Amino acid sequence: MPFPRITIREVEIGERLMPFVRPFRFGPSVVETAPQAFVKVAAEVEGFGPATGMAAEMMMPRWFDKAPAKSPLHTVDDLRRGLAQAARIYANALPSSAFGLSVAARAPQLMWGNREGVPPLAAGFGPALLDKAVLDALLRAMGLGLVAGLKRNVMGLDGRLSPDLTAGQIGGFLAALTPAPAVALRHTVGLMDPLDGPHGLAAEIAAARLAFFKIKIGGDLAADIARLEEIAAILAAAAPGYVATLDANEQYDPDRLMALAEALNAPRLAAFRARLLYIEQPFDRAETFAAPLPPLDGLPVIIDEADDAPDAFPRAAALGYRGVSSKSCKGLYKAILNAARVKAWNAGGARAPFLISAEDLTCQPGLGIEQDTALVAALGLAHGERNGHHYVDGFGPAPEGEARAFFDAHPDLYTQRNGRLGLDVSRGLLPTRGLLEAPGFARAAEPDWTSLTPIAPAAVPEPIPHGTLA
């Protein structure tokens, strides 16, 4: 089947600093402000003409790279430089399918990262944004919404990055996609978030009808258990029937993880344990692949930060991990292929079911939250971590006109409170029909590009290997 070839004519990248209304601690990091990156591509789609595509993601300090020698600002600058490098690679690429552009960019981007001391997860941030923007342009040129385009595989997704999957498994998975009509909010309880008071957990539950929770744990077993006991008591009283996940952000080791699993079976946490879906990324990303998972009494464990390569999930599964996160900042094609793996492995009679979860990177109202939520819904996932609205006030410093444009495009997603436009979380879910059906990758409005700080494209004159094109 021929796929439309795309020629990238121009790439524009910029950023906007987003101040947080409360500190966000995950693992050893505390974030109080972070820049949001924006990408715009001008493309020519063979047989359909010119089109523009856009994407946005947060550049979170010390999430993509937790190297102790690097400051938070250093890790953000690596993301910024990697995005500029990716923009240059895509702008100089030979015409290809949307997925072909992604495959061709992988080797030169990783070469750049290796040369610059930027690890694969961080180096992959730039291509992840470019892939979203390219897909947006392709779908808009063809007049297709996200699910319609995925079902027809207009991006040309194949097994070049996933030789463990057959063409039939990939095509069958895409053709059978059944999107979720809404994505329930899985509320993040950060390590510094208050549990009591007007902005405490019970108040958050009352304001947003929350039923799904993602709870951060920090690696200090005694402190984590004490806080979980407090949280469990609040959830039992304020959100009967709740479901929870735990996120360790690489702060545990095997011995403490086994001790945590044992403590979760104690009387004060037994009811909480029964409602716990999985533990996310307990070990340092490099140590994840050093040894099989220890016995955890049937508690599933998934990878997130360790998901830095196309084969990361299969390698983790061979060691006992049961799942992986979908996170558009790590690459939309990786998420789709991992979801196809989950379906294929479970259909093959897996001893215990595999899963793909929906996590985010503090996705902001506008392009970020809309595209990530659309991907989650397209994969049929019923709930996902959504915390951008929790740590940033509305649209942050975005111009009023930009916020109003997104509100007008999706009045079912946004609301106005105290004179500020922001995400409507009052129902505890985000409707997705409008995101999935409009032409493009969930984009009916766009940022005010004049309000962004430009990021200069990489300018080092070097040959760009194109890899295998489709």
Task: Offer a few descriptive terms.
470 residues, alpha/beta, 4-stranded antiparallel β-sheet, 16 helices
Strand residue percentage:
15-25%
Q: Unreliable runs, pLDDT <50, ≥5 residues?
A: 458-470
Indicate the multimeric state. Answer: single chain
CA gyration radius, whole angstroms: 21 Å
Task: Give the number of DSSP strands.
Answer: 15
Which of globular, elongated, flat, extended, rod-shaped describes the shape? Answer: globular
Number of helices: 16
Structural class: alpha/beta
Our measurement of the CA-to-CA distance between the termini, rounded to an integer number of angstroms, reads 11 Å
Main beta-sheet strand count, sense and barrel state = 9 strands, mixed
What is the residue-mean pLDDT, rounded to a whole number?
95
Give the fraction of residues assigned to helices: 25-40%
